[in-house]
Amino acid sequence: MALQDELYRMYVAQVYPVLLNNDPHYRARLFNCGVDPTGGLTQGNQANFENEMKLQAWLGACEIEKSRGLEPNSIRTKVLIGPQVLYRSVNSGTKDTGIWWFSEKVAKRCEEEAAKSGQSKAEWLRNALAVCYNWNTMDGMQRIRLHAGEQLPAVIGIGLPMPFNVLKIHRGRIETPPDDYWKNIRKTLLGGELQIVLPWIPVRRVSPTPIL
For residues 201 and 208, what is the distance between their CA atoms, to the nearest angstrom? Predict the structure, then answer.
């Protein structure tokens, strides 16, 4: 089954309370298709809800597939169920809205293996998650805590290797590459860890955390 179809099935399975109460974008999509947050789905709004979720599934699948960041055969949808904690690296001081997260299991391995290898936690995570240097400074960390029984739609997959830096295109033009672009052009970041993609993010649950 195509990723778009899997996302659609997951989206229309229910209205997700953790998103309804913590993601203004999700709440707005429901309002636009006639779903009253207090009244839920009815025969009168079911069709509009399904059409809106079909569009959102297409948009989500396009963004994930365009990134080429996950091993294609490993990609699948999953409803995450709390209690659990998710993490993402960010550029400190910015309002990051990235959809790429990792699990508490990966965070614990980072704590253990970075100490053994003499790497900083940021260096270990950058290599394990294959985060290009000019994508993210990785000098900040955020988390989402799901409480017991809360459900959050997600896509999971194994991260692919990535180059140290990537050329960025803005308005059809290639931006000036980083100073060390050519020096490191043959180097790659390993990847290979399970990554979690959140097409919808309960932003009111996002908080800074000092994991690094």
Answer: 15
